[in-house]
Amino acid sequence: MKIWTDKKYPIILSCASCLVPWVKDEVREMGYRVIDYSDSVVVVEGGLRDVFRLNLQLRTAHRVLVPLLRTTCRHVRELYDHVTTIDWENLLDPDGYFSVASVVHNDTVRDTRLPSLITKDAIADRMRAKCGRRPDSGSDYDAGAAVFVHWEDQRAIIYLDTSGSPLSKRGYRKIPGSAPMQETLAAACIDAMKWNRKTPFISPMCGSGTPAIEAALAAIGRAPGSLRSHFAFMSLKGYKQIIPNEKAPRVAPRHRFGVSPEQIWKDMLLESAEKEKKNIPPIIATDISPEAVENAQINAHAAGVHNLIQFKACDFADTPIPDHFVPDLTPEEEKKYPYKGCVFFNPEYGIRLGNPVELASVYERIGNFMSEKCKGYVGGLITGSPELSKMVNLYYITRIPFYNGPIDCRLFIFPNCEIKGAK
Asked: What fold is seen in the domain 183-222+278-417?
């Protein structure tokens, strides 16, 4: 397969369970048509520049995959045979490095690590036969090229993983803290609350700072992929190679041969940086733990947004709420988002952290804080405890299912932070 082309081919965007609606919204806003989707996958079409753009811009997806082979596969011996039919010599550098990951649900496979090992062997044998040598391989997804195998029953798909490490790993979370929220989940929660990125965003109980940092990145318009130094596509064969351009003028050699994929990526980074906004609304992050606030500041500094977030070590009830900030909104924008801003809570659930009995009073105080100090704001609270959520006692318009790691959670959205039954 020729990966370095603008001719369109299917691009598979994998994501965490329950994030598909937000990935679909993202790609549609980027101008793509969703041609298919499932429980954890969104499919669009595109070429070289689209693979780059999706890796650079997506906030809620985990991987950008290009399918190389779809086949029927009954056992690992057939997997080996199928993998060797792919022209890996045109995709991988024989002196480079690659890794293989897999998700397998097949009754003949007892050790789920085996398909990855078989795939590595098949790639290595094909490369050795075609090139006289083979690339090194291992499990380091932060370096080299990447291959992904999805094998369900007798259906197997071999993908070129252009991301490598999941896109959720932006690269800024230097100190994760205890039970941190994944970046893609934080981005999806912000999108679910329909924050307009022009009004204040408040993150009490900020922990390692992920929601506030994701809000700052969204408000400034900074591409989350711009924070990473490596994507797996950078290690594919031909990344630094010049792409012939037959339509270009033949006067100057520089134009005659076009540009390399590497230069296209660098130009895309520059163009994205030039579009970043200079002024954004107040973003405030607080936590009762001074250590957590310090860690959040370190993470924000790594993301390049430390000067855009106001940090404070205090009880959440003492979080400052901007009440006189006047956003620059058009009448249409004001009608679409009639709130003063957004306040988002990710408290302990009493599962990994916290005592459920003690947390009951905390949730009650959260409800009191929002109803008393955040009137006119849209409130959001994500929790894995249905019982504790009742203690907030605020009117909510929806409960959106999300998974925070393995924990089945709900994001409650409270318009105007009003007490239940209030008129």
From this structure: Rossmann fold (3.40.50)
